[in-house]
Amino acid sequence: MDKKVITPKTIDDLEPKMKVAGKVLKTSLAGAIVDLGIGVMGVIHISKLSKEPVTRVADIVSEGQEIEAWVYRVNSEAGKLELTMIEPLAVEWKEIKPEMEFKGTVTRIEKYGIFVDIGAGRPGLVHISEMAHGYVQKPTDLVKKGDTVDVKVLKVSHKKKQIKLSMKALEEPPTEV
Fold first, then answer.
1. SS3 168
2. Contact at 8 Å (CB) between 54 and 46?
3. Would the pTM count as exceeding 0.90?
4. pLDDT tens digits, the chain, 177 residues: what are they?
5. Does a structural domain hold residue 175?
6. Shared-domain flag, residues 58 and 121
7. Range of the domain at 59
8. Residue 101 maps to a domain
9. At a CB cut-off of 8 Å and minimum separation 6, what does 54 contact?
10. Are 16 and 69 part of one and the same domain?
């Protein structure tokens, strides 16, 4: 995902997940009104100000404050623009399919495997048997927390919000001598 702030000229230049900068014009109990300088005001609902629950908008933003946000929803015909201060996922769950390949970060190590963040909001599991061809005694023999690894999606359970990943599926199998 592009982390660069976009400077739009009109509402038609905007798409969901674009990062934009603006000035908070007004706050209310329900959220904030933001001026992006394109003639249409963006609205940030209180639920989109932070991942954590927010009880007071003023705890997060104040009038006159310059902020960065992401486009959440845009309807150029109606002139409506919804923004969020919660960074969107790099990859949406509905987009993840078996055989897809990702570069991810090891977030947790267990005896039975490692959890890898591929940008989907929840990490996927690389079972110890999917870490390499041959025997792996313990995951820490190959990786440590924070390492970047290449993984391939084996299975996705949208219902359980689980992703089964493999590192060895991207490696050449050892040749028999």
1. helix
2. yes
3. no
4. 446 787 888 888 899 999 999 999 999 999 999 999 998 899 999 999 998 999 999 999 999 999 999 999 999 888 899 999 998 888 888 889 999 999 999 999 999 999 999 998 889 999 999 999 999 999 999 999 999 999 999 999 988 889 999 999 998 887 776
5. no
6. no
7. 5-84
8. yes
9. 46, 47, 60
10. yes
